[in-house]
Design goal:
heterodimer, A: about 1200 residues, ten-stranded antiparallel beta sheet, seven-stranded antiparallel beta sheet, 29 helices, 50 strands, globular, B: about 750 residues, alpha+beta, Neuraminidase, six-stranded antiparallel beta sheet, about 40% helix, elongated
Chain lengths: ~1200, ~750
């Protein structure tokens, strides 16, 4: 014991020292001294419960630091922290509050798990102070969600324990939910039982207590006022101290409760007078009194006799529903106020304490009494959640936080845990300052704090999304029109105090990557609305999948009651999040750190790209052609009802044959489009309504097996020439049984997935008319059977001489299987899909093309179609960023949605440049008019190849010229610019007219002023008396000045205004008018005093702000009337980062204008890199819906 | 370089933005679609893309530092000729004017914000608005008198206030005061009826007012503001039971009956020709059901959109597959579109707003759906609760064309925002095609419709457009090909007739010869059959199958004699009768698959099995019921006799049905009468044969046979009723058991 004490004291000292060093590094020395292996230091806790509680309470009330460093120092000084240190990084965990710190010793940055200044709020929501939040419901009332958070529980004396875990980790164990100490009390109790079992005994005891201290009680001496008769008259009531008439309780409703309370109080004050407020007897009486009163404050009396007549029926009906036995018992009922779970628990505790102190009341009896009323309590059982967080430092210093699913224990039979969030406020941003949340919605979206913060919103504002898209194994699918989240990442950039004692602000931030269990999680961005100022981003998950099951979906009769069905087995792995610290470039420069990730979404993208490359998931595209790839999806065959001799016959009809594909390529390459990848959809096993590819049977109407073989032979011959590429990717859908065939040994029974309610799960599509998701009757293939089915497929497919395959849904869809007998979690499904992709790519050597491309497929795929290159544009988000492009460009080829489906082709080409994407079309060669008649295939509404041909060539050439040679460049920067709109000619003319008019007015004003001054001076000067004044106006200089002023910096003479222009705008007429006015009044006279007026006499600031010389990314941009700054002018930078490349370091900048008007953008050295700072800024004109390429 | 991205964007939000929001976005948070002929949605390219920014009260510059001053209830939005917006704020009691480019409150010449909440009337008395819900600005380029006025519906003050374009007061339009108690008034409209909520002014200056308290239709006023009458009164609905009950009531009782008042119109627009478009959203369920039926049946009475001419006649063209009144494919009748606003676009197109779905439907001047789009949700481009809609017309110098932006007011979270949709290339193609169609430039029309089809080959209107243009250019074959794609029959029929004329003129002689030869053969055959039948009449013993069949040709011409011999001389048999029945089935099957395009544009057909059911069930029911009945009423025919007689009676049908079916392939719509007549002759003949067949078979008098025939029909009904009852009972039992099993298996 003693040894331990000494050891721990030594450790505290060591820790304090290392902590100080890590937090406030004294230069490079600290880094050198850092250990090779992480050092974990956990101190034995010696604090008593009271001390712990005091620390926790203080944390809630007094956390008001200006910087994280300050808060860390305070905790360090107090000796509350356990730690891991490794190289330049350290983790600290407060063993009482659970608050953790992630410290970068080199830059001095600190990220905290909870805000550092929550003390400014009187009632800060407790989840802000928590490291774990849980949303759950009881099985009895599955639709009522209850929120639980770790801080409430810690403060409720269920303390956390911090231990050293395996492999240099710190394990923080939490006990959430209700502690065992809570006693069950009746949730609902009949008034008679209340009287008999609780009130009467208590009041009797109270009376006895009074009697024992006060002796025999004088009758009718205590009066209570304030009661009203039914006619409204007041009356005094005197009390029998022994309170024998509590019968009235049953019938007089709440009033009598009040009476008892007041009477009890009256006795207390009587006792106070008699015994003195300091006496022990008085204290005993008053404590007892408060215990009685608690019953009346916590319980609500349901008394039908006091209901107002107009709503009586309705309320009664409601009451009888809540308390089923109430009507039969004909008695009033006391019910615990149950709207809020947390409040209910408080009530439990208070009443439990009151009953325990005074009565011999058993919890079992409470259950019996509940049962008697038939009332079902909100909480049948008190929940206990046991879970832990495991902190560790990765090799590169990243913070790793694990939530081991296996360590999460709770009463699964009683409760449904709907969502668990770990470290929900880690690195949360202060929305009073600048910053944003990066959310990987589609291509990526940025949620600016300014847009997200709303003091007036009563509710929290939330953006959420399921990772990897929809899981069709759920019956209820909700999201519509949304882009898929394909990358398990998020991050926050926020402004914080530097923490070195100065007032300096720096950008702080983190980037989180979900490593394990990502397929099961949901990403959330959360603001407190009016509750608090913190913006948080976190992932959440449900340990066991649950699904809503509507009876109405399967049964045609009866109501549509919903059940919540919970899966039997859940994920047993760990939910692992990797947090990477982002650094302000200025801070990095100051501390001379050269390897860091900038605190912006660009930095996050670089971080993710490096992370994937380091893991070997991303590899540069190997065989790059000179030209950009073009993607064409062709549709194969469909069955069409044709009349033969007036008899209807279903005939397989070709939409695009194998020969047609050859023709397309020949025609396209003749126009210079010679790098084309074709995806063949609907060419085998029945055409567009294909059966499962357990075998491969090419459609005869398209040319059959011979046709396919001849096509791939043709492709081979084309590819012999090094600059050409014809890729043929036949598409197979492995994830769904779209159509069943006889004798292919694929059946729903053997291979289909089931919903939790045991129906077959099918793919669902959104019907925009009904606004609902509707089934497609394509049954989901259970992921664990994929491998076996592929065995059969590959037997057929491997005999063809091709190494290309398209597996559209493998990269885009991820479905579980909730079949009782064969549950496959989404994470297990991911593993199955990954193993299949691995087999195709690495074992069979196929080049794979897929749709959308979830991040787990990156390692195996070469081409992504329908990649998410735009965001969902949520109302609460700010703008889309090309995060996906910044990560994937030059590693995987990708294209967005088909260009022939978009409203605006120009927009899409610009967007492709911004994201580095290729073009993609869906086309058919013939018989396109049949598609319209088919309900499902009518979605291919604009696919006629011949009509599109010219457009394809034109669009492709535009894009290829722009980014064709940049295929191996990375996208290294992206930013929005402020630009100047170039007004159209009529606007220009009218504005110029106004400006010239203003100019002449100013001339007039200046003249008047000068003349007045001159006259004044003349009057004052005796020599001048009698002399006339002659005003001589130098018109030519005025004209020159006007031309100079209103040519707006046009450098060449030909762009400058001419006198003819001026006269066109009526300048001379106006000017002459003024000149004449003065010259008439002050004409030329011999001997007159001459006032010479020229351009130098005019100086004024125009009220029209016609032009701005500011640089496009300036912090202090000077706005003109034409300034456009809504984020529609974008700069994207491509850079060759491959050291082995001949063009290493070459940078290309694109200026993209999404506006419907031309703009001028002014750039200086801060954007145009490789230029010296003294070079003048350059103005670029970017056309409407156009772009400019700047090679630097 | 301190994170300039953030800096730039923070600035972007804070700084006053004066220009530059004509921005296109390609991300649509909704589907765009049209309807197929089956009422199923067909996806189409986006016609409009949403502006990526959110323009709320704060953005507009209405909200002051204390957070007050936002739009209270933006009830209406219109634009002036330049495209500036006028918003009626009925809670803020004001009219707000927004700039066309910036969507911020416009400033007048003196630099004051144009928020009009009061004015000085002709007596220089300061007046304020009370809940102004409607506003209208006339376009001087269109008005005959070139006037530019602003009309404000001052709803609770029960008047319309007219201003000039700079909001200088001009005059007040109102109606006579309510008569005092005991007095009467000659005016058809008084103050109590006049609560103007929407207003429109036609090019002649006539004023059309929708009053929420007036159930007599739209109030029409002269330019001077004199009441001239009502147009377009709504039908009063009552359920059939009430109507029936009223037949038995006295006049007094009937008058005291409570009648639900019709819903008043909710919005109004007037086009350049002075026609009035009015919208209505029904509040009661019966009307909603009627609305759905009206949409499917293309009836005007309960359509939520009406187009009225100056005398109030409904003249809306309904040439599309469905009535232009919103959603067609709704699950429940109560889910029909809630149409709350209408706006007139270019080239005769017009759009209506379905508030319940946040969806906009755009139609052409003929009532064809051009596209529908919009949805609810939390993405930009989705509406929470749209309150008003207008087109903003901006002149684009580069293209020299007007750009029709669609602008809506959306109520969300206690505030309003402007939702701006920009037209896409696809929209422009459609409008160009419509423009050329309206101008009768057929070749240009074809080109533009072709371009539309390139983008969207689901678009029926383009096929029709090309087809019509080709027809007008004389390319009948091409026209027919195109029209077929859209199931069009009217113009197709015309093209077909023209082509037929062409063919006929070339092949007339051979055709006549073929026809004569066919007729000659037919009569020869009849003659031969007659001879044969005569011979068989004398034959003793069993007749051959062929002879039995040939007897038909005697029977159909001589029913009395024929049926007598049929029964007594055994001239027919079950075998031959069944053959005739089978022939009938085959003929009907042929009719179902062999009809020409004009008469069966969608190529619907049914299977042989269905046809067999369709013929056999009634025939057998007839036979059985008749036998059941006649055995009770001394009928002499056995079941077999009845069967044979019935089948032989059907004999004319195969011939007539076949002929009429063949004719559908060569006749046009206008000649439909011929086909109907041929079929009718066949049926009448059958009925006559059947009747006399029964008379003869049962040896009944005509009178008795009439009674038994009627009785047979009743018996058929009874049998059917029992069968249906039984089968539905079985189905119910099965579903009950199944549901119990499902429920149990899911609960435990």
């Amino acid at each position: 014991m003693k040894l331990n004490r000494i050891l721990s004291t030594v450790l505290v000292i060591v820790l304090l020292l290392t902590g100080m060093i890590a937090t406030f590094p004294m230069g490079a020395a600290a880094a050198e001294e850092a250990a090779e292996k992480p050092v974990v230091s956990v101190i034995e806790d010696t604090k008593t419960e009271e001390e712990k509680l005091a620390i926790i309470t203080a944390y809630q009330k007094e956390t008001l630091y200006t910087s994280a460093q300050e808060m860390l120092k305070a905790d360090l000084d107090a000796g509350y922290l356990d730690s891991i240190t490794y190289k330049d990084f350290a983790i600290y965990v407060n063993r009482y509050t659970g608050v953790s710190y992630y410290v970068n010793g080199k830059s001095g940055q600190v990220l905290t798990s909870n805000p550092i200044d929550s003390g400014i709020y009187k009632d800060v929501p407790k989840d802000v102070l928590s490291q774990i939040t849980i949303t759950y419901s009881s099985h009895a009332k599955p639709m009522i969600n209850i929120e639980e958070n770790s801080f409430r529980c810690i403060a409720q004396s269920s303390f956390i324990t911090v231990t050293k875990g395996e492999g240099d980790t710190i394990v923080v164990k939490y006990l959430l939910g209700e502690s065992e100490a809570v006693d069950r009390v009746p949730d609902a109790i009949f008034a008679a039982d209340m009287e008999a079992e609780i009130l009467a005994p208590m009041l009797e005891k109270y009376a006895a207590l009074l009697e024992s201290h006060l002796g025999a009680f004088p009758e009718n001496t205590i009066k209570v006022t304030g009661y009203k008769n039914e006619d409204g008259t007041s009356y005094l009531r005197s009390y029998n101290p022994y309170l024998t008439d509590i019968d009235a309780l049953k019938y007089s409703g709440g009033i009598h409760g009040d009476m008892i309370k007041k009477a009890v109080d009256a006795f207390v004050s009587y006792a106070k007078n008699e015994l003195g407020s300091k006496s022990a007897a008085y204290k005993e009486i008053s404590t007892f009194a408060s215990n009685i009163k608690i019953i009346f404050t916590e319980y609500q009396l349901y008394n039908p006799s006091i209901l107002p007549a107009d709503t009586r029926e309705q309320t009664l009906k409601l009451w009888y529903e809540t308390v089923p036995n109430m009507e039969a018992a004909k008695d009033n009922v006391f019910i615990l106020n149950n709207s809020d779970q947390e409040q209910l628990m408080v009530s439990y505790r208070l009443i439990g304490k009151a009953l325990k102190a005074n009565l011999d009341f058993k919890a079992d009896r409470a259950v019996e009494l509940n049962a008697k009323t038939g009332y079902s309590p909100l909480v049948e059982d008190f929940p206990h959640f046991e879970c832990s967080l495991v902190y560790s430092l990765a090799e590169d210093g990243a913070l790793i936080v694990d939530f081991p699913a296996a360590s999460f224990k709770y009463q699964k039979d009683s409760f449904i845990v709907k969502s668990v969030a770990c470290l929900p406020y880690f690195g949360s941003g202060d929305m009073y300052k600048d910053g944003y949340v990066f959310f990987p919605d589609g291509s990526g979206t940025v949620v600016e704090f300014d847009d997200f913060y709303s003091e007036t919103a009563a509710q929290r504002i939330q953006i959420t999304g399921e990772l990897y898209g929809k899981d069709y194994c759920y019956a209820t699918i909700t999201d519509k029109h949304k882009e898929q989240i394909t990358m398990p990442v998020y991050g926050i950039v926020s402004t914080v105090n530097k923490g070195d004692g100065s007032d300096e602000l720096i950008q702080n931030g983190y980037f989180a990557i979900l490593e394990d269990g990502a397929a099961l999680t949901k990403l959330n961005v959360n603001s407190g609305g009016g509750l608090h100022k913190y913006a948080a981003a976190y992932s959440s998950f449900a340990p066991y999948n649950y699904d809503e099951y509507k009876l109405g979906d399967v049964i045609s009769v009866g109501d549509n009651k919903s059940y919540l069905v919970v899966a039997e087995t859940g994920y047993r792995g760990t939910y692992r999040t990797r947090y990477v610290m982002l650094t302000d470039p200025d801070l990095a420069a100051e501390k001379s750190i050269d390897s860091y990730y900038a605190s912006s979404y660009v930095g996050m993208a670089a971080c993710y790209r490096d992370y994937l490359a380091d893991k070997g998931i991303l590899e540069k595209i190997a065989d790059v052609k000179d030209n950009l790839p073009l993607y064409i999806e062709t549709l194969g065959a469909m069955n069409v009802t044709q009349r033969i001799l007036t008899f209807p016959v279903s005939v397989s009809t070709a939409l695009t044959t194998f020969e047609d594909v050859k023709t397309m390529y020949k025609q396209l390459s003749a126009k210079g489009v010679n790098n084309v990848n074709f995806r063949l959809t609907g060419y085998s096993n029945g055409g567009m309504y294909f059966t499962y590819p357990a075998k491969v049977r090419w459609e005869r109407s398209l040319g059959g097996e011979k046709g396919f073989e001849s096509l791939i032979a043709y492709a081979k011959s084309v590819n012999k020439s090094s600059d050409k590429n014809l890729g043929i990717y036949p598409d197979f859908d492995f994830q769904y049984i779209n159509n069943t065939a006889m004798f292919d040994r694929v059946s729903n029974g053997k291979h289909g997935s089931k919903l939790v309610d045991n129906r077959y799960a099918t793919k669902q599509v959104y019907n925009s008319v009904s606004g609902l998701y509707e089934t497609l009757y394509s049954v989901l293939v259970s992921p664990d059977t994929l491998d076996g089915l592929y065995d059969r497929f590959i037997k057929d497919y491997s005999k063809y001489d091709t190494k290309n395959i398209s597996v559209s849904t493998l990269g885009s869809d991820l479905n579980s299987n909730f079949d009782d007998k064969n549950t496959v979690s989404r994470d297990a499904a991911r593993k199955h899909v990954v193993s299949l992709l691995n087999r195709m790519h690495n074992k069979n050597g196929y080049s794979i093309m897929t749709d959308i491309g979830n991040s787990y497929s990156y390692e195996f795929i070469d081409h992504i179609l329908n990649a998410t290159i735009d965001s969902s544009h949520f109302v609460n988000s700010s703008y889309a960023v090309p995060f996906l492009g910044m990560v994937l460009h030059s590693y995987i080829n990708y294209a967005g949605t088909p260009l022939n489906y978009t409203g605006s082709v120009d927009y899409n080409i610009l967007h492709s440049i911004e994201n580095g994407a290729s073009l993609y079309y869906i086309l058919c060669m013939q018989n396109t008019n049949y598609l319209k008649d088919d309900e499902t295939l009518s979605k291919y509404y604009g696919v006629d190849y011949k009509n599109w041909f010219d457009d394809i060539v034109e669009s492709y050439n535009t894009l290829n010229t722009a980014i064709g040679d940049l295929q191996l460049y990375e996208i290294v920067d992206h930013t929005a610019l402020i630009a100047e709109r170039i007004p159209n000619s009529s606007e220009h003319a009218s504005d110029l007219e106004d400006l010239l008019e203003e100019y002449v007015q100013q001339v007039d004003l200046a003249l008047a002023k000068q003349v007045a001054a001159k006259l004044e001076a003349m009057r004052a000067d005796a020599n001048m008396i009698g002399k006339g004044l002659e005003v001589s106006i130098d018109k030519a200089t005025l004209v020159a000045d006007a031309i100079d002023r209103f040519s707006f910096g046009a450098e060449s003479d030909e762009n400058k205004l001419t006198e003819a222009d001026l006269s066109e705008y009526g300048f001379f007429a106006l000017l002459d008018e003024v000149i004449t006015k003065y010259q008439l009044k002050y004409p030329a006279k011999v001997g007159a005093e001459v006032l010479v007026f020229d351009e130098s006499d005019i100086s004024y600031k125009s009220k029209f702000k016609y032009t701005s010389d500011s640089v496009a990314n300036a912090d202090d941009y000077v706005y003109s009337d034409y300034t456009s700054d809504n984020g529609s002018v974008i700069a994207v930078t491509y850079k060759d980062t491959d050291k082995s490349s001949a063009t290493y370091g070459k940078t290309v900048l694109f200026l993209i204008n999404y506006n419907n008007y031309d703009v001028n953008v002014r750039l200086d050295s801060s954007i145009l890199t490789n230029r010296s700072e003294t070079d003048p800024a350059v103005t670029y004109t970017v056309g409407r819906l156009g772009f400019v390429r700047v090679d630097i | 370089m301190k994170s300039r991205i953030t800096k730039v964007f923070i600035l972007a939000i804070v700084a006053l933005m004066l220009f530059g929001t004509v921005l296109t976005s390609a991300y649509e948070s909704y589907d765009t679609y049209t309807y197929s002929i089956d009422g199923k949605p067909l996806l189409s390219p986006a016609a409009y893309t949403p502006d990526v920014s959110v323009y709320d009260s704060k953005y507009m510059g209405l909200v002051d530092e204390s957070g007050q001053g936002g739009l209270g209830m933006a009830s209406d939005i219109v634009t002036d000729k330049e495209g500036n917006f006028f918003i009626a704020d009925s809670v803020g009691n004001r009219i707000v004017v927004l700039d066309k480019y910036t969507y911020r409150v416009k400033e007048d010449v003196n630099g004051n914000q144009m928020i009009i909440d009061h004015y000085y009337d002709e007596y220089n008395v300061r007046q304020t608005f009370n809940a102004p819900t409607g506003v209208y600005v006339t376009d001087p380029n269109k008005m005959i008198d070139k006037s530019e006025n602003i009309f404000v519906c001052d709803t609770q003050n029960r008047k319309v206030v007219v201003f000039d374009k700079d909001f200088n007061y001009e005059r007040t339009i109102t109606v006579p005061d309510d008569p005092a108690e005991g007095e009467t008034t000659t005016s058809l409209i008084t103050k109590k009826d006049f609560a103007p909520t929407a207003i429109a002014v036609d090019i002649y200056g006539r004023i059309f007012v929708v009053s929420k308290d007036c159930f007599s239709g739209i109030v029409v006023m002269s330019g001077e503001g004199d009441f001239t009458g009502f147009i377009g009164a709504q039908k009063i609905t009552a359920d059939p039971l009430t109507l029936l009950w009223e037949k038995f009531q006295s006049v007094e009782d009937r008058e005291s009956n409570f009648r639900e008042l019709p819903d008043p119109y909710n919005n109004i627009a007037v086009d350049d020709l002075g026609f009035v478009y009015a919208t209505i959203s029904f509040s009661n369920v019966a009307d909603k059901k009627n609305q759905l039926e009206a949409i499917k049946g293309k009836e005007a009475a309960y359509s939520p959109v009406k187009k009225l001419n100056s005398v109030g006649k409904e003249i809306l063209k309904r040439n599309g597959f469905f009535d232009p009144g919103g959603e067609v494919d709704v699950l429940l009748p109560t889910e029909v579109s809630t149409i709350t606003d209408i706006a007139i676009g270019n080239e005769g197109s017009w759009s209506i707003l379905d508030k319940s779905r946040s969806r906009i439907f755009t139609y052409d001047s003929n009532g064809n759906l051009l596209f529908a789009f919009g949805d609810t949700g939390n993405q930009i481009g989705n509406g929470a609760s749209y309150t008003a809609m207008t087109y903003q017309v901006l002149y684009d110098e580069k293209t020299g064309k007007d750009v029709y932006n669609l602008v809506l007011l959306d109520q969300t979270g206690g505030d309003f925002r402007l939702m701006v949709y920009h037209p896409t290339d696809y929209y422009e193609l459609i409008m160009n095609a419509l423009h050329n169609q309206n101008e009768h430039n057929y070749s240009a029309t074809i080109q533009y419709w072709q371009d539309v089809l390139t983008r969207n080959n689901n678009f029926d209107l383009a096929y029709v457009g090309i087809g019509k243009a080709l027809y007008n250019l004389g390319d009948y074959e091409g026209a027919m090909e195109m029209l077929k794609n859209a199931y069009e029959t009217e113009v197709y029929s015309l093209a077909f007739a023209a082509m037929r004329k062409d063919i006929l003129s070339r092949w007339l002689l051979p055709l006549i010869i073929v026809l004569i030869v066919a007729l000659v053969f037919f009569f020869k055959f009849l003659g031969w059959a007659k001879k044969k039948n005569k011979a068989v009449a004398l034959k003793v013993g069993k007749k051959t199958y062929l002879e039995e069949l040939l007897y038909v040709f005697h029977l159909v011409f001589h029913p009395f004699d024929g049926f007598w011999d049929l029964k007594h001389e055994k001239r027919g048999s079950v075998k031959s009768a069944t053959t005739i029945l089978a022939l009938t089935v085959v003929a009907f099957f042929y009719q179902s698959i062999g009809q020409g395009y004009i008469f069966n544009p969608r190529g619907d057909y049914s299977t042989v099995i269905m046809q067999m059911l369709g013929i056999l069930v009634p025939v057998l029911l007839w036979v059985i019921s008749n036998w059941c009945l006649t055995t009770l009423f001394d009928g002499e025919g056995s079941l077999k006799d009845i069967y044979i007689a019935t089948c032989y009676s059907l004999a004319p049908l195969p011939l007539f049905i076949t002929i009429s079916t063949i004719l559908t392939n060569v006749l046009t719509i206008s000649e439909q009468g011929i086909i109907n007549m041929i079929a009718a002759i066949g049926w009448v003949w059958v009925v006559i044969l059947l009747f006399f067949g029964m008379v003869v078979t049962h040896d009944y008098s005509t009178g008795k046979n009439v009674i038994t025939t009627l009785g047979t029909i009743v018996a058929m009904c009874v049998i059917m009723f029992i069968v249906i009852l039984f089968s539905s009972l079985v189905v119910k039992m099965v579903t009950f058991v199944v549901s119990i099993i499902t429920e149990i298996s899911n609960k435990f």
